[in-house]
Amino acid sequence: MSAAILSGWSREFDRGYDVVMNTQNNNINVTFIQPDGRTETHQGPIGDHVMDVAVDNGVAGIIGQCGGGCTCCTCHVWIDPNWQDRVRPAHNDETELLSYAIGVCDRSRLACQLRLTQELDGLVVEIPSETE
After folding, report:
1. Phi-psi category of 100—alpha, beta or left, where left has phi over 0 and alpha has psi -120 to 50?
2. Are 55 and 96 in contact (CB under 8 A)?
3. Which residues on neighbouring strands pair with residue 110, listed in sequence order?
4. What is the pLDDT of residues 27-38, one digit of tens each?
5. Domain range summary for the chain, segments of one domain joined by +
6. 71 CB neighbour count, 10 Å cutoff
7. Is 107 within 8 Å of 79 (Cβ atoms)?
8. Looking at the predicted structure, is the pLDDT value of residue 22 above 50?
């Protein structure tokens, strides 16, 4: 497919997949911490999103109702403080949507907006309780 045919969104969306083809280790580890303290670690390919890893592995508390379209907040997570500076800042649409989530704090993000990159291997996120 010619790059001239791709829209700006498609080029951005596909950028992560170019990296997959050029790396030996395509899987990124993500650790999810449940509100009760239980942890589970799962892997996902570079270019996927944290929400994809959660939904594909049945992580409780991550629904992803909109399928990653950034139109709901059912994949709300808190970024572990040790990882906050490595995650790209939220864009305006995400920030606005987070105002509707339960338990919003300065570490809040939507897992559907967190693209897996080599730099995020080992990422730790917390799942807020439904009553926070």
Report:
1. alpha
2. no
3. 76
4. 999 999 999 999
5. 8-126
6. 13
7. yes
8. no
